[in-house]
Amino acid sequence: MKKQDNASLTPASSILASGQLPASDSLPSVPEGDKPMDGVARQGLLKIAADQRAEIDQAMEQLWSDRASIAKDLGTLAPDADKGAALNARMLAAREANRKVQALAAYTDEQEALANHAVVGHLNTAASDIEHMAQKNPQIAARYARVLAVVTQRRDAIAAGMARAKAKKAAEPKKA
Which of 12, 33, 54, 63 is the most buried (most CB within 10 A)? Predict the structure, then answer.
């Protein structure tokens, strides 16, 4: 395999080697014993439309800032201001945590795709070099059977996908 130093990396290949990742053991996990809500329970939840978040936030702020006058105006029917403040704080914290987690998920998904691409490219190069050298020394291929097997599996899967696409295209009616 041809050796590359960092100075010889092309802009595209340097992207594959970049992208700081958080240590997986530093990421929080779902609380122990948590069970996701089933679809029926989740469907019954009151929802906030994305385009109504600002209005909800302003309404909750008004309940808090006008809590004294609301208590006077509504008497025993006045909402519990402290409970409202706690609920609002939890909603805002959950919203911000969700935003960060979604952004991190998108980022790490992209980083995984880049890493997968780099690894497969590395394996392809190694397999090509092994196959080349095995023409001169056939015992080499047996020593790297796993490398050659995974590359062969990928080649076979690509060929099968291309054959399916070709068959699907051939089965489509011709346009006049």
Answer: 63
